[in-house]
């Protein structure tokens, strides 16, 4: 008779709530825990004499309870007084008052008059003497700790005691062996002018610093232990970026090196009503040089608003098309994509007609019938150029011979969109196929240190001057109380044949925010300007065809004034517009204001931007508006923006997707970054095993994400 074996499967382990909370903080492996350094420390290594204890800090004090009773004024509370111990040899006994606004019988019992107690809490020095509110009660017999007590970044359901134990376990299990090469260490030591601590020592110290350490050094991240972490982190970041670059360099790309008078680029240049500026010609040549190489280009073209990036993109597209490849141009908004489409069709369709090629248009909002027809043209190669929104990178879009992808205003695309583009490009490179070249454009320049750090795998071209004949935009900051004066200004502009933008931050009535929304502004402006001056209204709730109709009327000049939400923020190009009014300017970010302002000053007329603000202004908003009034230089504004917001928010707002640096601070660690760059290059060249170990420690499974 067969005996049935009892099931011996290991029981499914249930994760405790604390474990789940740990994972939510991203703490999964021993090294994750080891690198989860304290945000601050508490000093439980000593008991202060009250007479010597620093006010404003968390301290421990001992003494004897002299009073403990419930008071009802100003509100119900347990008031306790302690006669604190005096400094030996001195007669400086002082009274410490403890207040508990919520308390239990156990408190009253532990704090009964005559008891000796130790309390820990923030010491306050008020009118009524020294106080602590809700201090922790400890037994006076409890042993003092030998090192400072770490306080970790945590979340609900994750007590410090649990976290401390978990970190200790992590520290004992993580592989903390040396991953810097002897040469890298030597260079780092030379740079720092001091010995570099081993990672193991650095981490043990940061988690449990000895009591004699200067806390400022830990808090300012100036301690040698911090130096080790910063250097390793920056090295990991540079390694992963350089590695991504190498992977790309190993892919094959189409080569566009046709010449002669069939060259579309040459013919486009002859057609243009203007000459390229020296800066445009230079970046265009940088791009061409990339396109003649058999590895995929990965280039960021930065140029201030109005510097003329579109024509540079068109020239690159011409080079792809001349060589018989397709080009895709992707823009973040439908309005912008539409505008590119109109412009490029006008420029290129006559040239393409001879070869039977067309320009296709793809967005999420087109009818199924039109979309199917467009997709077919993209698939069979009839469409040499495809313009659209992120609908371009959906799976249903199949290209015949995609050779170049251009992304306009790339910082406006989200992480998910960038990842899916990346995946699509990589898929195309599978097998023997070729990976298209990639050109990204942005008007929001990335400050140098950020570029070196987060965009180290990109090549960067910069258009550093504007087309000639532009008069600088004059910016005025004006209280919203003086809004009415503007009507005269607007009327003047319209009479002079010019056009005006009026931008509002929200479209929906929001009483809480008290914003004058676009429809109301539109009604008011229409009324004060009178019937002769038609005012358009543009906002996100309009259908694509309505948007297109409004925009077309404004481009044609039949609408003289356009009230709009920020849907016109990026890229819109109507050179005849000369006045930009921004309502509630205090609610906009600096790069957004600069982008909006860039809608004017695109022709030769003197242009102005008026920033209306609602009082009272916060300090940061004030600094932003002041910066706007002082400079038109996008690079300068970007630098100020970084200063005001810090890299986290700066990059966050761009949805960069880059894992942010946790230890290094780019505003201070410029020289470390330089070291990391050189070291990363050297390691990739000579020490692949060291690279793998280092990346494994710092990136774990996150490398893929960093490449986005
Ligand atoms: P952005 O860099 O902001 O995308 P655009 O490409 O929209 O700028 O160009 C802004 C305006 O400048 C457009 O009207 C464009 O036709 C014009 N422009 C571009 N290059 C030149 C040039 N070299 N000379 C004169 N005007 C130019
Ligand atoms: Mg543009």
Itemize the secondary structure elements and their pairings.
Elements: H1 17-24, H2 30-34, E1 40-42, E2 58-71, E3 77-84, E4 95-100, H3 105-110, E5 116-122, E6 124-126, E7 129-133, E8 136-138, E9 149-151, H4 160-173, H5 182-192, H6 199-207, H7 215-219, H8 224-249, H9 264-271, H10 278-291, E10 298-303, H11 309-322, E11 326-330, H12 334-353, E12 358-362, H13 368-379, E13 383-388, E14 402-407, H14 415-428, E15 437-442, H15 448-454, E16 459-463, E17 474-479, H16 485-495, E18 499-503, H17 518-529, E19 535-538, H18 544-556, E20 561-564, E21 577-582, H19 590-597, E22 608-613, H20 619-630, H21 634-653, H22 670-686, H23 688-699, H24 703-706
Parallel strand pairs: 4-7, 10-15, 10-16, 11-13, 11-14, 12-13, 14-15, 17-22, 18-20, 18-21, 19-20, 21-22
Antiparallel strand pairs: 1-9, 2-3, 2-5, 3-4, 5-8, 6-7
Helix pairs in contact: 5-22, 6-8, 8-22, 8-23, 9-11, 9-12, 10-11, 20-21
The structure holds adenosine-5'-diphosphate (ADP) and magnesium ion.
The site of magnesium ion (MG) has 4 residues, from helix 11.
């Amino acid at each position: 008779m067969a005996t049935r074996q009892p099931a011996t499967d290991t029981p499914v382990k249930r994760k405790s709530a604390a474990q789940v909370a740990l994972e939510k903080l991203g703490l999964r492996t021993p090294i994750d825990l080891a690198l989860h350094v304290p945000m601050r420390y508490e000093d439980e290594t000593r008991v202060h004499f009250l007479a010597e204890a620093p006010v404003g800090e968390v301290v421990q004090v001992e003494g004897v309870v002299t009073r403990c009773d419930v008071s009802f004024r100003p509100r119900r509370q347990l008031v306790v007084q302690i006669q604190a111990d005096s400094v030996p040899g001195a007669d400086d006994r002082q009274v410490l008052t403890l207040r508990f606004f919520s308390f239990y019988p156990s408190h009253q019992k532990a704090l009964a008059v005559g008891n000796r107690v130790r309390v820990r809490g923030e010491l306050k020095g008020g009118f009524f003497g020294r106080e602590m509110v809700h201090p922790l009660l400890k037994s006076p017999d409890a042993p003092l700790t030998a090192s400072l007590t770490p306080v970790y970044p945590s979340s609900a359901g994750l007590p410090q005691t649990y976290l401390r134990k978990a970190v200790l376990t992590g520290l004992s299990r993580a592989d903390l062996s040396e991953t810097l090469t002897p040469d890298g260490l030597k260079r780092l030591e030379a740079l720092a002018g001091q010995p570099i601590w081993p990672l193991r020592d650095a981490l043990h110290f940061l988690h449990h610093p000895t009591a004699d350490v200067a806390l400022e050094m830990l808090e300012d991240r100036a301690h040698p232990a911090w130096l080790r972490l910063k250097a390793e982190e920056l090295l990991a970041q540079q390694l992963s970026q350089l590695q991504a670059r190498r992977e790309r360099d190993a892919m094959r790309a189409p080569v566009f090196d046709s010449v002669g008078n069939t060259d579309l680029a040459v013919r486009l240049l002859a057609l243009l009503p203007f000459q390229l500026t020296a800066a445009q010609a230079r970046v265009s040549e940088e791009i061409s040089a990339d396109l003649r190489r058999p590895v995929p280009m990965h280039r960021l073209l930065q140029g201030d608003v109005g510097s003329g990036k579109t024509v540079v993109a068109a020239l690159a597209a011409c080079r792809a098309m001349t060589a018989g490849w397709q080009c895709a141009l992707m823009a973040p908004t439908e309005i912008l994509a539409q505008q590119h489409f109109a412009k490029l069709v006008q420029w290129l369709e006559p040239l393409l007609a001879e070869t039977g090629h067309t320009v296709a248009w793809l967005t999420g909002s087109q009818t199924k019938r039109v979309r199917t027809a467009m997709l077919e043209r993209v698939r069979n190669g009839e469409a040499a150029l495809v313009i659209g929104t992120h609908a371009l990178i959906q799976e249903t879009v199949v290209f015949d011979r995609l050779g170049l992808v251009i992304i306009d205003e790339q910082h406006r695309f989200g992480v998910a969109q960038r990842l899916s583009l990346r995946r699509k490009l990589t898929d195309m490179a599978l097998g023997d196929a070729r990976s298209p070249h990639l050109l990204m454009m942005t008007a929001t320049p990335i400050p140098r240190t950020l570029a070196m750090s987060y965009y180290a795998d990109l090549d960067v071209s910069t258009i550093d001057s504007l087309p000639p004949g532009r008069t600088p935009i004059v910016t005025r900051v004006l209280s919203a109380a003086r809004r009415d004066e503007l009507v005269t200004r607007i009327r003047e502009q319209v009479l002079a044949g010019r056009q005006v933008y009026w931008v509002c931050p929200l479209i929906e009535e929001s009483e809480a925010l008290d914003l004058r929304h676009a429809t109301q502004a539109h009604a008011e402006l229409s009324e004060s300007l009178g019937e002769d001056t038609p005012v358009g209204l543009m906002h996100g709730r309009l259908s694509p065809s309505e948007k297109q109709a409004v925009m077309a009327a404004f481009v044609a000049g039949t609408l003289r004034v356009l009230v709009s939400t920020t849907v016109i923020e990026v890229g819109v190009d109507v050179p005849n517009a000369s006045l930009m009014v921004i309502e509630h300017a205090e609610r906009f970010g600096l790069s957004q204001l600069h982008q909006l302002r860039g809608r004017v000053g695109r022709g030769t007329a003197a242009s102005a931007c008026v920033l209306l603000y609602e009082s009272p202004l916060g300090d940061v908003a004030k600094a932003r508006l002041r910066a706007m009034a002082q400079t038109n230089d996008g690079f300068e504004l970007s630098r100020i923006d970084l200063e005001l917001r810090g890299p986290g928010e700066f990059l966050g707002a761009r949805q960069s997707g880059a894992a942010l640096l946790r230890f290094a601070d780019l505003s201070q660690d410029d020289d470390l970054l330089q070291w990391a760059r050189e070291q990363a290059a050297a390691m990739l060249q000579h020490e692949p095993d060291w690279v793998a170990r280092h990346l494994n420690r710092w990136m774990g499974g996150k490398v893929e994400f960093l490449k986005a």
